[in-house]
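SAMPLE LOG
Freezer: B-3
Tube label: C17
Construct: single chain, 413 aa
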Amino acid sequence: MANYPLFIGLRYSFSRKRNRFTAIIAAVSLLGMVIGVASLITVLSVMNGFSGELRSRILALVPHGFVTADNGQLSQWPQLATELQNQPGVVAVAPYIDSKVILSANGVLRGVRLQAIDPEREVGVSNVGESLVVGELSALDEERWGIVLGTVLARWLGVRPGDSVEMTIPRLTVTPLGAFPRSRRFTVVGLFEVGANLDGEYAYISLPAGQRLFGLGTAVQGLQVKTTDLFSAPSLLASLRATLPEGLRTQDWSETQGNLFRAVRMEKIMVGLLLLSVVAVAAFNIISTLAMSVTEKRGDIAVLRTLGASAGGVMSIFVIHGLALAVAGVGLGVVFGVLLAINVADVVAFLEELIGVKMFDPSVYFISRLPADLQWPDVAVVAVAAIALSLLATLYPAWRAARVDPSEVLRYE
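STRUCTURE (predicted):
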C-alpha cells in the first residue's frame, strides 16, 4: 500500500481503458516531447560539428601562441627561440613577420594578411605545409621572391603557380620625385587550401624576403609557439610570460581567434534555448493531459480519499502520471536524436540525392557533408532539462487533484 501512488500513476499513464480524447491528447504530448528532444540533440550535435570543423581548419594555420616585443622587433630571436623550445609543454617555435598588404594581378586588387616564415621551422608550429595542394613550402627558400597563396585568393586574382603578383606594403619610399608606396613583384610558387575563409585571406613568403621587404635586417616581429595541447595553451603561455625578459609579451590563440569561437559558442547556446522552447511547449502540454485526466478520474480520487489516501498521496499519483509520460517521451526522443545525430550526414546526402538539390556547395560552405559531433553531456543536459520542465508542468494539475472534495463527488453517485 505504501507504493500505491506509483502503481496507480503508472496505470493511469499506460492503461488502454481511458477516454479516447484524453488518450489522443496524451499521445500528442508524448509525440511533441519526442520531436523536441530529438531535434535539440541533433541540432546541438551539428553545432558541435561545425565548431570542430572551424577549429580544426582555422587552427591548422594559426599557431597555439605568440611571443612578441613591445617595440615590434625581436633582434636576438634565435637565442629566445632555443630557450622557449626547452620549456616544458612547448613542442616547437618558429619566427614570423606579419603585416597586411595589397596584392594585385590582372587588374584585381585584394587586401591580404602576409606572413614571412621560415619554411623549415614553420612545419613544426602549423599545418600550412600539409595544406599545400600545389607546390612545396620549401620552394620559398629556393625562389627568393616566391609567394604561396590560398586557392581562393589565387582564383580571385586569376593566377596560378608560375604567374606573378604585385605586392604593395603600407610603407612609403621617399624619392626625389616624392613619396611612393613600397611595392615588389612576387612569383607564385604554391597554393594551399584548408577549406575556410583563410584560403582567401593569407599569403606566405620566405623570412629573408620579409626582412628585406620590411627593412628589419636580421630581426623578426615575433615567435610562433606550438604547445602539447591546444586547450592548455592559454595557461602555459601565461606561465611563460613570467619567465620572459622585460619588454616581451605572450598571446595565445584564444585571444587572436577567441571572438570567433565565442561567437560560435554563443550561437550554440541561443539555438539551444530556442529549441528548448519546443521541449517546453511539449512539456506544458502535459498540463492539458493531466487536467483532463483529473476531470476524468474525479470518482477514483473520491474513492481513494474515502479509503484513507492522503492529499499528498493523490498529488503523487498525478505527478507520477505526468512524469511517466514525460520520461517515455524523453527516452524515445533521446534514442531517435542520438540515431539521427550519428547518421545526419547520410540522411542529408540521401535527401540531396532524392530532391536533386545540393544543400552544401563546397565552393560556398567549404564542406560537402553536414558535420555532426554527438557529445553525451549535451544529451544528458537535454534529457534533464526536459524532465525538469515536465515535473514543473505536473505540479498544478496534481495540486488540483489533491483538492478534490470527495463528498461533493460522491453526493451524486
